[in-house]
Amino acid sequence: MKIGIVKHLNARPLTWGFEHNPGHTVIPENPSLLKDYLLRGLVDVGLISSIECLRNSEVLSVSMKVGVCAKEKVRSIKFFRNKKEPYPPFRILTDNGSRTSMALVRVLVHIESGHLPEVAPTDPKIIREEIALGRGSHMLFGDNALFAEWDPEIYEVKDLAGWWYEVTGTSFIFALWASKKPLELPDSFFLDSLNYGQTHIEEIINKESRLPSDLVRTYLTQELHYEITDSDREGLERFSRYCSDLGIL
């Protein structure tokens, strides 16, 4: 089976079992592109942005058993609010890797200010250059957010999961496993891969050489969670309503 996996650290526990199963072919990519691969039949299963599961519910089968979820901190999705420029911003440069994050930052800015900003999906390298120059407000996703640097005199940086939790009191699902109908796999298919990843969590931690092991362990075992809770479901339903009301869906 061809399985599209997210190439960032935040998804490793979910995908580790598939990556170590010779019976599968794994294709690593950003979740925004994996949705396109899935609809075009280039992969059988993909870990895709949760908003794309909402947008394509008529053609996709989605597992609501596991996903990339966070409550008070996701760490790897950050909004860089420029304190030197007017707020709310008219346009936000957004990392083109996650369409859920693009929508979420628009929803949160709208809740806070009443203004729905435009977003411009952009190569994260360009966003990092803009942050270094202190120009504009931006969103970074995944490893690009984990390793971002900024001047705190210019930028107030907000964790999108923490911001969402402050506003709604619910946690958030950023990515879900999906397949194109009529293919519908049992939840156990995805749960088995997660169980393998959690059983071998120290291997995942040791494989990540760019960050201190204690930070990676906290990130993967405490800040993120992967089995979907009632709070996650409630958060996704609320996010869907916001997006629908604002015309984002």
Order of helical and strand elements: EHEHEHEEEHEHEHEHEHHHEH
Number of strands: 11
Tell me the CATH topology of the largest domain: D-Maltodextrin-Binding Protein, domain 2
Number of helices: 11
Low-confidence stretches: none
Note the main sheet.
Answer: 6 strands, mixed
Provide the β-strand percentage band. Answer: 25-35%
Structural class call reads alpha/beta
CATH superfamily of the largest domain: Periplasmic binding protein-like II
Q: Spatial order of the strands in the main sheet?
A: 2-1-3-10-4-11
Radius of gyration: 17 Å
* Oligomeric organization of the protein chains: single chain
Distance between the first and last residues' Cα: 30 Å
Per CATH, the architecture of the largest domain is 3-Layer(aba) Sandwich
Helix content: 40-55%
The first-level CATH class of the largest domain is given as Alpha Beta
Summarize the structure in short.
With 249 residues, this protein is of the alpha/beta class.
Description of the molecule:
It comes from Leptospira fluminis. Catalyzes the dehydration of chorismate into 3-[(1-carboxyvinyl)oxy]benzoate, a step in the biosynthesis of menaquinone (MK, vitamin K2). This is Chorismate dehydratase. InterPro entries: Menaquinone_biosynth, MqnA. Keywords: Lyase, Menaquinone biosynthesis. It is a single chain. The chain has 249 residues and is an alpha/beta fold. It folds into two domains: 127 residues, D-Maltodextrin-Binding Protein, domain 2 (3-Layer(aba) Sandwich), CATH 3.40.190.10; 92 residues, Periplasmic binding protein-like II (D-Maltodextrin-Binding Protein, domain 2), CATH 3.40.190.10. The strands form two sheets. Strands 2-1-3-10-4-11 form a six-stranded mixed beta sheet, with helices on both faces. A five-stranded mixed beta sheet has the order 7-6-8-5-9. Helix 1 packs across helix 8, helix 4 packs across helix 7 and helix 9 packs across helix 10. It starts with a strand and ends with a helix.
